[in-house]
Amino acid sequence: MSRHAIRIEGGRAVLAARVARDAHTEPDTTELERLAEAAGYDPVGSVTQRRREDPGTWLGRGKAETLTERAAETDADAVLVDGGLTPGQYANLLDRLPAGTELVDRYRLVLGIFAAGSADRRAALQVEAATLRYELPRLRQATEESLLNEATEKGSPVLDAERRVDRIETKLAALADEAAERREERRAAGLGLVALAGYTNAGKTTLLHRLADGMSVEEAGGTAGHDDAPDSTPVADDLFVTLETTTRRGSLGGRPAVFTDTVGLLDGVPHDLVESFGTTLSAVSGADVPVLVVDASDPVDRVREKVRVSLDALDVADPVVALNKVDALEPGALDARRDVVADLLDGGEGVPVSARDGTGVDRLRRAVAARLPTDRATFRLPNAPETESFLAWVRERGACEVTYEGEWVAAEFVARPAVVAEARGRAPTE
Ligand SMILES: Nc1nc2c(ncn2[C@@H]2O[C@H](COP(=O)(O)OP(=O)(O)OP(=O)(O)O)[C@@H](O)[C@H]2O)c(=O)[nH]1
Ligand SMILES: [Mg+2]
């Protein structure tokens, strides 16, 4: 096989994990196992170590030998490393492994999951570019200087890859502003913009199904975007089930809204890795209300860790926090999770919910609705046909309560400030 292939191979895998000697925990391979499975590997063994990172071989030399032995004993196809390897560490470890063993770090593993799951050409292109960017320094390291110089003149794998990355990036740049434009169109149409974000497997997609109506924005027509997937958004107990953002229509407090489901975040993976992370981050920072979905059924330390990773990745100071999966919590266990949120979000409050059974979802809706940009106006309108068409316009863009009083119609309108301003200009007069 070529180790520069976009798709990783899958097969039997030995896992390697390490924490610093002064860490409070033992190395834990649970998350790496789940990533491995999502990428098509079957974990058959592991080697763990508590010590600082070795600059040459990531694990200490002795443990690197153990890793080699373990790979040989288990007849492994691959070694998966729970961290990022520098090009040098990659080359050194690969040298030590039995010939033909694939070496994959956490970063590369996530790229592999995205490569396998990229449904459309654009997504496939961006994963290819990210993989090439990742592979290039490793390819350079593996190619001798002299050979490299000679080959530069005639074309080489390195040069070909560099050219390909340039071409792909030019194409992707042209598409980058589209999502931002669509957000502006939706705002102009009066829609509230809500984005669900959080660590992978937190329950974002399940919560989207609870909050939004069934249809994607595209199916619903109107201010449709063009890359909103019209198909169902899958939920599963795997990591990275959602690989691109999708947007669905719904309403909040009688106001029209769109809910965007985003790609899960993960510790130790740079979130400029693939464009779908970029789209995720901009969907969240460009939303009116970012909702941080947290798996509250994790142990408290994991909850803290995942919230911290999510806040670091997302450029939002003050999201609405949904403490999800409370149906799976022991009674009394919620308080410690709330404390984590209060601590990391400067007094912020988590809303306990169960996306699975619907508990707390109405309270979450109210918390989100309260954060939408809002203005209100009261109209006294003539009871006439032009008032009916005005009211139809208004009802598409906000919440409106109407009372008929003989020759007059009273309307209470709540919507985005710009929409309320426009309504004032459109309201029929006597
Ligand atoms: N017990 C319980 N399980 C839940 C709840 N919400 C989601 N889950 C489960 O958690 C798993 C992940 O749910 P998803 O909705 O796919 O999570 P996600 O955040 O979209 O995950 P990615 O797209 O992979 O990042 C699934 O097995 C869900 O059934 C909940 O409220 N309670
Ligand atoms: Mg999802």
Automatic annotation (TrEMBL):
Gene3D superfamilies referenced in this protein's UniProt entry, alphabetically: GTPase HflX, N-terminal domain, P-loop containing nucleotide triphosphate hydrolases
One term of GO molecular function: GTP binding
Pfam families in alphabetical order: GTP-bdg_N (PF13167), MMR_HSR1 (PF01926)
Coiled coil: 158-185
Cofactor entry: Mg(2+)
Binding-site positions, GTP: 198-205, 261-264, 324-327, 354-356
GO-annotated cellular components: cytoplasm
Record keywords, A-Z: Coiled coil, GTP-binding, Magnesium, Metal-binding, Nucleotide-binding
Entries under PROSITE patterns matching the protein: G_HFLX (PS51705)
InterPro entries: G_HFLX_dom, GTP-bd, GTPase_HflX, GTPase_HflX_N, GTPase_HflX_N_sf, P-loop_NTPase
Domain annotation Hflx-type G: ranges: 192-376
Binding residues for Mg(2+): T205, T242
Stated name of the protein: 50S ribosome-binding GTPase
Species per Swiss-Prot/TrEMBL record: Salinirubellus salinus
